[in-house]
Amino acid sequence: MEQTLVFVKPDGVQRGLIGEVIARLERRGLRLAAAKFMQVTEEFAGQHYAIHQGKPFYDKLIAYIISAPVMAMVWEGSNAVEAVRQTMGATRPTEAAPGSIRHDFGLEIGRNLTHASDSVENAKQEIALWFKPGELVSWQRSIDEWVFE
Length: 149
Ligand code: DAT
Ligand code: MG
Description:
This protein has helices spanning 10-14, 18-28, 42-48, 58-65, 80-88, 101-105, 120-130, 144-147; strands at 3-8, 31-38, 70-76, 114-116. It is an alpha+beta fold. The chain has a single domain (2-137), classed as Alpha-Beta Plaits. It is globular and about 45 Å long.
């Protein structure tokens, strides 16, 4: 089953939107595989956002991500990577589709509420960075056959 890494960023946590994000992913039919509420260190944030090192927004991005706790999760399901990116919406909230989280709750790219892996390959790397294998729960739901074809 395809898996993807999601985290509710510090603004989403501070604004009390953890439950909203989880509710939307559950409602979509995705299955939770792991969850961890944590304070990210500067070093860890640098590892997660290594691809953005050197970009003009990098320092502010790291300061934002470590400014309060985050809620990190692994979600799984058919086309999980693409489906979760769609539920989150485009990076810039003013370009995010109506009905997406970034549209419905965001205004600025530097306060865009959530992270979601952008490819299956990156999802694997990010899940390995954020979670130990033993923290992932392998389980089935009785409704799975009504969600996964
Ligand atoms: P996404 O979070 O949609 O995967 P990304 O990987 O391109 O987007 O960038 C990571 C985060 O960095 C993004 O959520 C917000 C910030 N960011 C990206 N591009 C930016 C820009 N041009 N100005 C300010 N912040 C930016
Ligand atoms: Mg990204």
